[in-house]
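Regression test attached.
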Amino acid sequence: MSNLVIVEHDNNEVALATLNAVTAAQQIGGDIDLLVAGENCGAVAEAAANIAGVSTVKVADDAKFGHHLAENLAGLIVEVAGAYSHVLVSATTFGKNVMPRAAALLDKAQISEIVEVKSPDTFVRPIYAGNALATVQSSDSIKMITVRTIKFEAAAAEGGSASVETISGGADTGLSSWVSQAVSNTDQVDLTSAKIVVSGGRGMQNGDNFAMLHSVADKLGAAVGASRAAVDSGFVPNDFQVGQTGKVIAPDLYIAVGISGAIQHLAGMKESKVIVAINNDSEAPIFQVADYGLVADLFEAVPELDAAL
Amino acid sequence: MKIIVCVKRVLDPQVKARVKADGSGVDLANAKMTMNPFDENALEEALRLREAGTAEEIVVVSIGAGKTEETLRHGLAMGADRAINVVTEEALEPLAIAKVLKSIVEQEAPGLVLAGKQAIDDDSNQTAQMLSALLGWSQSTFISELKIDGDTATTTREVDAGLETITVKMPAVISVDLRLNEPRYVKLPDVMKAKRKPMDKIELDSLGLDTANRMTTLQVEEPEGRAAGVIVESVSELVEKLRNEAKVI
Ligand SMILES: Cc1cc2nc3c(=O)[nH]c(=O)nc-3n(C[C@H](O)[C@H](O)[C@H](O)COP(=O)(O)OP(=O)(O)OC[C@H]3O[C@@H](n4cnc5c(N)ncnc54)[C@H](O)[C@@H]3O)c2cc1C
C-alpha cells in the first residue's frame, strides 16, 4: 500500500486538518507521500517534510496552483495519483472542492468523510447528518478519500525527515480565475481546532449581542461558533456555522446559547466531549444531548457566566 | 441559454433517519420525502435567471424510479419548463450519477448546470464536481452568490475561511449553498399547471453507460447515543460542575 495525502495550505503554512488526514493514512498502512501544490510554497514543503511518518514530499510550485483552483489542481492530482493505492485529503471546503473532480477524471469513486479505517479497503462514514454510520468496502484500484478530521488525532507536525522532490505537471486550464477572498475573523481562535467553543443561535437576537459570547470566549480561550439561523440572520459570517452544512467540530467543551438543537446543528457538534446548553425553553431538543443544561434567559445567564469566570 | 438543474428525492430534513433493524440501511418506508433542500436553491436561482432574461429554458433532471417523478413535478410546479427522469431501480453512486448527467447534458447542450452542493441523505458532496470533470467544464462549488455576464460567471463561494470569489468560464457546473436564495413556495395553480408540463422518461439501460457501483455497503448502524445529562439550577452550579466534575475549564 502507498498513500498520497494532498496538503491543504495557504502557501505559507500547512493547514492543521492535513495532519488528521496523515493519521488516517497511517491507519491504512504503507508509505505516505505528500503533495504540495501552490505558488511560492517552499515554506509549506519544508514544514510538510517535518511531519512524522512521511517519506517524500512532492512539490509543484507554479502560479497555476496559487489559488488551488479545482480544475488545475485536479489535473495534477490525476497525474500523480497513479502510483498510489490511496489518495487522501481533509474533508474541508478545500478537499471537498477538488477531490471529487480528481476522482471522476480517474474514473474512481470517492469515499466521503471517513470517520474510521476498518481495513485498507473498508471505511466507516456518516450519512443522514450523522444519524447513521455506513461501513463501505471499495473495489476501486485507487481509493479516493476525504477525511473527517474530528475522528483522527493530528499527526505530529515535527519529528519527520521526508525528502522533498520538485515535480511539474498539470495544465493551466484557464477555466476559472481567482478574484478575492474575504477572511472574516483572523484574530479569532480557530473554530475547528479550538478546545472550547461558545456558539450562539437565533436566540441571540442580533449580531451586537454576540459581543457577550466573545467576552466569555476570550476568558476561556475559546472560539465563537453559530447556528445556521444566526448566520442566515446576518448576526455572524458564514464561517462561524457549525452543522451538517457548516463545520463539524468536537471540542472538549461546547456551550450552545440560544440554539434549539436541530438535527442539522447536532450533526456538527454532538461529538463534543462536554456539551452545555443555555436555553429558556426546557423542551428544546438541545437538552437531549447536553451534559449540563441550564434553563434560563440567556441575557441574564451569559453576563452572569462572564462574571463568574 | 438553457439551464439544467439536477435534483434528488431525499428524506425530509425535519425527519430523523431511522436505521433498519437488520443493518441494511435507513428505513424509508412511508417516510416523508422531499426535494433535496440545496437543489431547491439551485432551481430557485435558475428561475431567477430566467426571470431576469439571462435564461430561456429550465430543465430539471433526476435519476431514480417510482416517486422520483413527484420530485420532478415539484420542480415543474416551482417553475421549471421540462423534466427528464432517468429511470432506474438501482441506487447509483455519485460517479455513476455524474456519468448519467453527462450524457443528458450532451443531448441537451445547456449553457449552465446547477446542482445542490450535497444531498442530505448520503452527504457525499461529489456529483457537481464529478460532472464538471467529466464534461471538462469549469466548476464553482458551495456558492452563495452568482452573477452571469456574457460567457463568465462570477461566484462567491462559502469556504472554511470565509468567502472566496472566483470567475468561471461558461459553460459551467455550479453547486449551490443554502444562503444563495430563499426558494419560493409553490401555489396550487402551479401544481395544476405542472401536471401538463412535459416529462421525458429515459431508461438508464438505453444510455449504455458503465454505472456499476464501486462500493458495497456492508452495514449501516446507529451512532452511539450520548448518556443523559443533568439540569443545573444556576450559573454558579454550572461553573462549579465544569471546573470540578467535567474539569474542562
Ligand atoms: C439542508 C439543511 C441544512 C442545514 N444545515 C445547518 C447547519 O449546518 N447548521 C445549523 O445550525 N443549522 C442547519 N440547518 C438549520 C436547522 O434546521 C435549524 O433551522 C437551525 O439550526 C436553527 O437555528 P437555531 O437553533 O439558532 O434557531 P431556532 O431553532 O429558532 O432556536 C432558537 C432557540 O433559542 C432559544 N431562545 C430564544 N430566546 C432565548 C433567550 N432569551 N434565552 C435563552 N434561549 C432563547 C429558543 O428557545 C430556541 O430554542 C439546516 C437546515 C437544512 C434544511
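Expected vs. actual: identical. Residues 2-244 of chain B form a domain with the Rossmann fold fold (CATH 3.40.50.620).
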